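Lecture notes, continued. The same structure-token format from the folding unit now serves as the input rather than the output. Read the line below as a description of shape only.
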């Protein structure tokens, strides 16, 4: 590696030119990257809901109802006018209201009251709307302009449209706030006014290169777009810090700048590469998920960390060599202590810390496996948002409503009528819109207008739109789905198709829960093997992985003891991210301890290790904690919000265990190399 690093330092102009070109290309490519905010789009192609949706797209003009619109203080004639105005909005393919279920030209008080109150109640009209997924942002904006802020709308399409508009604004806000604060943190933890600039510029280059190169994927998920850049910044900042700190150490020993940099690169190469590889592995494990957001985020972030490693070993040394004189001229007294007293404090409590740690392993593991979870998009926006308040307002008047679409082979209207009656007998099904329910089995197709007929009948299938009085997810919703499936199977064995938000959420639950064990085990195993080769020891990888994985379990056990509900996607992603990102701290601490152990007694080696690594770990850890909590506090998107809070708390837990527990294991002679 010595020759490679010397070559890099001798060809500064070439290195800078390559990066300038790369940054320009990335800046041009970045705006071309598309973002997908619909979680259901990432279900496996073979899932039942995906198959049903694809069949429906091929067979029918309209899609699955995905918006509920409630207009208050309105008469039936006024509601009919609003219905037409909704139909006229570009992007809306269908609107279902009372006139689709009963005759509004006959007295309502002599007709079925339950059916009527499903659509019109206390001068409130509820419309079931189908919005084209390609035009949902524009259509949702048009609906809001039509009904005003005093009326309400909710539904999957609204969730996605709001997420599309707000997330970009919120992430921009986070970046604007985070950069100055990160800069201040770096000022406090470094000894030169110029060092923070070098750190941010070098990592900024890596983030830009990664963002632009995401164009190779065409489209990225909202999770990758929302958290990818700031995660890359927070996770990989420590690589730059480790390198510069080693360079400064060798400069203080009297080496000239080039020799100090070459030695710093050679001495830190293994630890930085090991840290980077474990992080890459943690992210790459997500690629194995069947749920598409996992591979999407895994590939993007693994690529991002790879860019960060390349930047640290190429352009950052060049930048340091071009500016080291200015670094030395702009040195200031350290704002942080040398942590000698902290090292002594750690020495005094090592054994108790290990004992407490061991007592927490099993309870935290069991607790985090028993969390309550959200799987779909229904709870993404809470009651503090306009969408959350709109949802509560609609539910108060009309209750929960969950439209699903059942498709069966066309032709036998008598059988469809009998099945429709069986479905209506289910307590969860409040209404059905279908050909047999609208016209009756005895009415010929020719007596229905073509527009209505095209939405209910295709060449191969008859479509039935069921209104289910449940949430989109949860026990009641999933039980209702099971009952509908069983009824359809009774009449059309193996021939029916069922689609809707609940069905997609059901499939989502099955998919990502099946991913959980395999993804985590592969991530843990791969990190273990990487550490095995790095340290040439069986015990060290075991202790390091156990330490960080326990921090993950404690982090995910906190919601259980608080009786709060986790988004399963956040739960699954943070498991890999926290392991991959914070095991770096354990690697750095262990590597420096092994260096000091060769020259010092174990107690003094621990003290010197803590003194040497605390500033670096605090710098990286505080940045990651800050970024996580900023994401949690600012974004209104439930998945991203929870992911941010988990990242912040998880980083604090990992740092605590690295500082207080790992030294205790060293004293117990658990950290021994095996040549």
């Amino acid at each position: 590696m010595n020759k490679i690093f010397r070559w890099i330092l001798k060809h500064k102009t070439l290195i800078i030119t390559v990066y300038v070109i790369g940054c320009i290309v990335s800046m041009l490519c970045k705006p071309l990257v598309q973002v997908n905010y619909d979680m259901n789009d990432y279900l496996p192609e073979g899932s039942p809901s995906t198959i049903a949706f694809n069949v429906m797209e091929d067979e029918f003009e309209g899609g699955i109802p995905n918006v509920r619109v409630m207009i208050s203080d309105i008469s039936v004639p006024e509601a009919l006018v609003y219905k037409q105005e909704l139909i006229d909005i570009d992007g809306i393919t269908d609107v279902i209201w009372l006139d689709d279920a009963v005759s509004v030209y006959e007295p309502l008080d002599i007709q079925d009251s339950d059916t009527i109150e499903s659509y019109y109640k206390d001068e409130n009209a509820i419309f079931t709307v189908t919005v084209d997924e390609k035009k949902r942002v524009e259509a949702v904006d048009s609906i809001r302009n039509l009904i005003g802020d005093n009326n309400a709308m909710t539904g999957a399409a609204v969730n996605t449209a709001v997420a599309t508009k707000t997330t970009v604004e919120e992430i921009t806000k986070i970046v604007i706030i985070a950069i100055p604060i990160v800069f201040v943190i770096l000022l406090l933890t470094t000894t030169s006014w110029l060092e923070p600039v070098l750190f941010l510029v070098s990592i900024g280059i890596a983030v830009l290169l990664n963002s632009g190169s995401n164009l190779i994927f065409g489209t990225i998920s909202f999770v990758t777009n929302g958290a990818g850049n700031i995660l890359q910044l927070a996770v990989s900042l420590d690589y730059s810090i480790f390198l510069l700190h080693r360079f400064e150490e060798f400069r203080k020993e009297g080496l000239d700048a080039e020799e100090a940099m070459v030695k710093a690169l050679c001495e830190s190469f293994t630890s930085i590469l090991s840290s980077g590889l474990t992080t890459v592995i943690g992210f790459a494990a997500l690629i194995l998920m069947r749920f598409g957001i996992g591979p999407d985020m895994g590939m993007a972030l693994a690529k991002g960390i790879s860019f960060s490693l390349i930047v640290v070993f190429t352009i950052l040394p060049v930048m340091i060599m071009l500016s080291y004189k200015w670094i030395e001229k702009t040195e200031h007294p350290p704002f942080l202590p040398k942590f000698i007293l902290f090292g002594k404090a750690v020495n005094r409590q090592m054994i108790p810390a290990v004992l407490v740690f061991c007592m927490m392993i099993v309870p935290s593991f069991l607790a985090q496996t028993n969390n309550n979870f959200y799987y779909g998009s229904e709870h993404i926006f809470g009651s503090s948002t306009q969408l959350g308040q709109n949802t509560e307002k609609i539910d108060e008047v009309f209750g929960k409503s969950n439209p699903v679409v059942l498709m069966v082979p066309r032709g036998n209207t008598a059988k469809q009528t009998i099945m429709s009656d069986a479905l209506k007998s289910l307590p969860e099904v409040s209404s059905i819109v279908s050909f047999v329910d609208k016209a009756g089995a005895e009415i010929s197709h020719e007596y229905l207008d073509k527009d209505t007929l095209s939405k209910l009948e295709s060449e191969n299938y008859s479509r039935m739109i069921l209104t289910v009085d449940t949430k989109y997810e949860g026990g009641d919703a999933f039980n209702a789905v099971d009952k509908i499936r069983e009824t359809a199977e009774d009449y059309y064995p193996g021939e029916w198709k069922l689609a809707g938000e609940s069905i997609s959420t059901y499939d989502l639950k099955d998919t990502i829960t099946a991913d959980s064990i395999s993804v985590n085990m592969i991530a843990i195993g791969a990190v273990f093997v990487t550490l095995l080769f790095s340290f040439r020891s069986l015990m060290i990888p075991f202790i390091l992985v156990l330490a960080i994985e326990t921090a993950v379990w404690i982090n995910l056990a906190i919601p259980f003891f608080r009786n709060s509900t986790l988004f399963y996607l956040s739960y699954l992603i943070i498991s890999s991210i926290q392991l991959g990102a914070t095991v770096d701290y354990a690697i750095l601490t262990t590597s420096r301890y092994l260096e000091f152990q060769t020259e010092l007694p174990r107690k003094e080696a621990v003290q010197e290790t803590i003194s040497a690594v605390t500033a670096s770990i605090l710098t990286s850890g505080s940045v990651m904690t800050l970024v996580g909590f900023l994401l949690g506090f600012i974004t209104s998107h439930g998945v991203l919000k929870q992911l941010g809070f988990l990242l912040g708390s998880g980083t604090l837990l990992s740092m605590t265990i690295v500082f207080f527990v790992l030294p205790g294991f060293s004293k117990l002679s658990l950290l021994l190399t095996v040549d």
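Point for the exam: Residues 440-447, 669-675 have pLDDT under 50 and may be disordered.
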